[in-house]
Amino acid sequence: MAQTITSHTLVLPAPSGVRVVKALAILTLVLIASIAVGLAVGRQPIDPAGLFSDSFSHTLFFRLRLPRVLMGLLIGASLAVTGGALQALFRNPLADPYTLGVSGGGALGASLAIALGWSARVAGIPLVFAASFAGAMLAVTLVRTIARTGAVVLPGALLLSGVAVNLISAAGVLTIQYLTDPTSALRILRWLIGSLDVVGLAPIRQMLWVLAPAWLALLAFSRQLNLLAIDEDTAATLGVNVRRTETIVHALCALIVGVTVSVGGAIGFVGLIVPHAVRLMFGEDLRIVLPGSLLLGAAFLILADALARTALPSSELPVGAITGLLGGPVFLWLLRRRQQYSAM
Amino acid sequence: MPKALFEARHLEFAYAKGPVVVRDVSLTSTPASLTAVIGANGSGKSTLIRMLAGLLRPRTGTILLDGVPLNDWRPRLRARQIAYVPQSTATAFPFPVLDVVLSGRTPHRPMFRFEGPHDSMRAVQALENAGAAHLAGRCFSSLSGGERQMVILARALAQEPRLLLLDEPSASLDLKHRADLIRTLGRLRDTNRLSVIMITHDLQLTGSFDQLLALRCGEVAAAGLPDEVLRNHILREVYGDPNVRAQRMGDQTLVWVDL
Fold first, then answer.
1. Residues 6+ positions from B153 with CB-CB distance below 8 Å
2. What value of ipTM does the predicted structure carry?
3. Chain B residues near residue A229 by CB distance under 8 angstroms
4. pLDDT (tens digit, 9 = 90+) per residue, B193-229?
5. What is the pLDDT of residue A295?
6. Distance CA B147, CA A199 (A)
7. Is the pLDDT of residue A8 over 70?
8. What confidence tens digit (pLDDT) does each residue in A178-215 have?
9. Domain spans, chain A
């Protein structure tokens, strides 16, 4: 007897609602593990037993190492989540705070504030944050205005204007360094290299006050960003207010990047490679990619910094050098992969 | 006279610093009706349908959905009424086909909730209706133009709209899939009371439609039943070619151009 099978069974991938739980559970474990590594590793070994009895170990741990790991967490999470959001917003896999000039704009704003000696705070928030935010906002607005003609964001124009904004910012920073007094110039130079150096937990607290609400606000736009990542017109007809979403997400990204840049300098490529790593592991859905990037970005920068602290026997590498060395090749690989199916 | 679901009155549109591309176009769509918009390239068809979808704002004129101006609808509620399929869709990221179709469920989901099993069921149903069930496991960016078109149609159907706006859905489809598309639209009109406004250059396909609207240089050149519009003198004027010929054969109208 001939058997005919008429009904075809569809093997469907697990829905996003199931995948998100798994993804976030795994990435949380990764983050916890990397925090442990970051705390354990260093040129000066710390004896866990002596943490509370030995005052040297206590100071080293609570004044230097723990704040530094937390700084890596804040900055890594911030750069990665904004990278994921900007990639979706511009529908461009090569977008991130660095390539779009947002970091550069923030750096220019922050250097200006440092040179002018603005150490004041308004409501506990340092003015440097505000200056850096303003610079980042200016950069993202500029890049967006140039790249958008009518309803289309031109991917080539987007990245090129990002490059131009970066060059202008770098030139601006250099000019400021030459014009300012040697102390400020040195401060700017040290900070520009990109470092997670921090003493005590107070700066962490200040940053967290600004960053945590901004992260949450950005995550709240995951769904809109997911629809925008698919197609702008589609998103609009599915009920997304495209212009409002763009404006708010831009402002949030500029705020987050501005704050991180004003503290940690322009650390490149974290925002580029981390969202792609989350995509490769857990799929394209931005509602997974964004929170996933937040966790993996934190873990990645903590580990990169642990490497930076221990790679050389005698001195420390800047963490920006590590992320650049890792991220640059990934960027080139993405560029090559992209060319295979769509022209820039 | 059945109550209008969707009504556009005296629409006019011009792009910034450009000439007027749509002038005094009016159009009414009743529940459970198929409308085709025809016209030469550049006659303002896509601009018209983008206005109807709420993507462009007319310079003058009004668009009413259920008697309420389109702009007064909350975007989310409007998205449950009207779905739009653009001429072509390309994604920068390799989204799975099922995710693309599931995005159509967005207007029906609460803000911070993922799609549930009910939504997945609807998505698979929509894929079957669009004749794209075999593509469910594929990646959207690896599909051909025609396949993408079918998936985007499925996304629009998953939206469960009352009005479906299609911009040349048949352009990159083969003969069989063009016929399938028209059959599906006819079936959904009869079973789900779906209304469709569709731009097309396939005049043969419009024989079973309830009304045709022919645009010429942004203005309505003719409107009415297919039999009334698919006539030699009208089509010659609409396409600006004296060699266009239309001939009734059985219950279909054949249209061709003598070379």
1. B85, B130, B132, B166, B169, B181
2. 0.90
3. 91-93, 95
4. 999 999 999 888 888 899 999 999 999 999 999 889 9
5. 97
6. 58
7. no
8. 888 888 888 787 777 667 777 788 888 888 989 999 99
9. 65-335
- Shortest Cα distance, chain B CAs vs residue A231, angstroms: 6
**Domains with residue ranges and CATH for chain B:** 6-81+161-257 (3.40.50.300), 90-159 (no CATH)
**Number of Cα atoms under 13 Å in the Cβ half of residue A286:** 28
Q: CB-based contact (8 Å) between A5 and chain B?
A: no
pLDDT tens figures, B105-124: 999 988 888 888 889 999 99
B114 and chain A in contact, CB less than 8 A: yes
Task: Identify all chain B residues contacting A226, using CB atoms and an 8 Å cutoff.
Answer: 103
CB contact under 8 A, B91 and A285: no
Structure confidence at residue A239 (pLDDT): 93
For A267, phi and psi rounded to 5 degrees? -90, 120
State the smallest CA–CA distance between residue B148 and chain A in angstroms. 12
Helix (H) or strand (E) run with residue A23 in it: helix A16-40
Neighbours of A7 (CB within 10 A): 4
CA distance B86 to B89: 7
The SS3 assignment for A278 reads helix
- Quote the minimal CA–CA distance from A90 to chain B in Å: 9
Residue of A nearest to B83 (CA): A237
Please state which of the ranges A41-55, A246-260, B114-128 shows the lowest mean pLDDT: A41-55
* Separation of alpha carbons B130 and B195, rounded Å: 16
| pLDDT surpasses 60 at B241 | yes
Q: A65-335: which CATH number, 3.30.565.10, 1.10.3470.10, 3.40.50.300, 3.30.1540.10?
A: 1.10.3470.10
Spatial CA neighbour of A194 closest among A127, A119, A103, A112: A103
Q: Residue B230 in contact with residue B203, Cβ under 8 Å?
A: yes
Q: What is the pLDDT of residues A103-118, one digit of tens each?
A: 899 989 988 888 887 6
pLDDT of residue B130: 92
Q: Which residues of B touch A334 (CB under 8 A)?
A: none
How far apart are the C-alpha atoms of A66 and A72, rounded to whole Å? 10
Partners of residue A87 in chain B, C-beta under 8 Å: 93
Is A284's Cβ below 8 Å from some Cβ in B? yes
Whether B148 and chain A come into contact, CB under 8 Å, resolves to no
Is the predicted pLDDT of residue A344 greater than 50, yes or no? no
> Choosing among A238, A334, A337, which should be mutated to test the B contact, i.e. which has the most B CBs within 10 A?
A238
Nearest CA in chain B to A287: B114
The Cα of B165 is separated from the nearest Cα of chain A by a number of Å equal to: 11
Optimal mutation site among A8, A219, A227, A237, interface B, most CBs of chain B within 10 A: A237
β-sheet bridge partners, residue B64:
B7, B69
Q: For residue A94, what is the nearest residue in chain B, using CA coordinates?
A: B92
pLDDT at residue A120, rounded to an integer = 67
